[in-house]
Amino acid sequence: MRLVLAERSLNLTNHSWAGGSGNLSLEGPLVAWAAGGLGRTGHSAVAVCLGIILVLGCLNNLLVLLIFLKFESIRTPINLILLNISLSDLLVCIFGTPFSLAASLRGRWLLGEAGCKWYGFANALFGIVSLISLSILSYERYVTVLRRRMKVNVSSYQKSCLFIAGSWFYSLFWTLPPLFGWSSYGPEGPGTTCSVEWHSRSPNNISYIICLFIFCLILPLLTMIYCYGKIVRAIKMQVSRFNMTTVQKREHHILFMVVSMVTCYLLCWMPYGIVSLIATFGKPGIITPTVSIVPSVLAKTSTFVNPVLCVLLNKQFYRCFITLVKCGPFPQRTENILNSKERQNFEIAGQITEIPLSQTPADERQIKNNTQYSSKNQKTLVVHYKV
């Protein structure tokens, strides 16, 4: 008698789930994925992590947007790319993370098959925009430092806008095909998130995953490594030729920036890419729901890590952030420097390395002394200012 009642209860539960999911049936893919769930403790742990990511991601990216709105002087061409990164991360927090958070709290996907496709598409779209923008940012810094593009004018803003528009079109180019037959979006992990169907072994799906991995993950990473590597190498060459304390300090700052950007990129996105490739090409069932959910959560942490790096590693943002927190007036000297777009460049033997302006009188005296030393030895030292 108890077995019969238990079986009826299970049937009623399954029937209620199918009816509440709209587009799902008992044979639907989401029901099958839910069978391999994490358990109540696992779902609760994921929900806590996603809740923290949601709060920090929204606050950090809204803070970056607020700084852009409040301080007109930091709206430089290269900072527009930072704004694009924050905007894409904020859109992930708005249109993606809340749905996976709700699903983790309930232990199952709540929006049906159509909602699953939308979630997979939206997260892929905004995530790839952020990745491509990070590589564009590294290229812009490379051009600024090594290619003598020092003057900021209307064409510089137009170029940045073209780069930003290009990042969105590029992302759409790779995220729209699953909606029209080249691969597809479906549930992943324990069934509380959706993405590209990594487990499908069809040639159609495998070809898309290979292209996605190469052009949307590896290519941006290689671009960042190449551009930042060139920047660090150029600065090391300048320091070895000209003993200058300020330059050495800036070298350490830029090296820290490079290591931080590349490391965070690797930690946030490479585990997800590697696990996805194993799910596609490895032994069926080798990636369990517990294993698959960890890199998915790590990828979402990029939504609050990127704005933190943006504020801490960018002196313009950092000064404006401190001013905003203290609710004080913007420093007049800093505002004049930012508005005049002055830069400090160190040029020897036809090579240029950009060095941010030091704000201490001792550093300024060091620059002046080195300028006089350079003129005595018939070398050219061009000093501009950059914040």
From TrEMBL:
Gene3D superfamilies per record: Rhodopsin 7-helix transmembrane proteins
Subcellular location: Membrane
Membrane topology: Multi-pass membrane protein
A GO MF label: G protein-coupled receptor activity
BP terms from Gene Ontology: light absorption; phototransduction; visual perception
Keywords associated with the record: Chromophore, Disulfide bond, G-protein coupled receptor, Glycoprotein, Membrane, Photoreceptor protein, Receptor, Retinal protein, Sensory transduction, Transducer, Transmembrane, Transmembrane helix
Entry-linked PROSITE patterns: G_PROTEIN_RECEP_F1_1, G_PROTEIN_RECEP_F1_2
Protein name: Uncharacterized protein
Species this protein is from: Chrysemys picta bellii
Taxon lineage: Eukaryota, Metazoa, Chordata, Craniata, Vertebrata
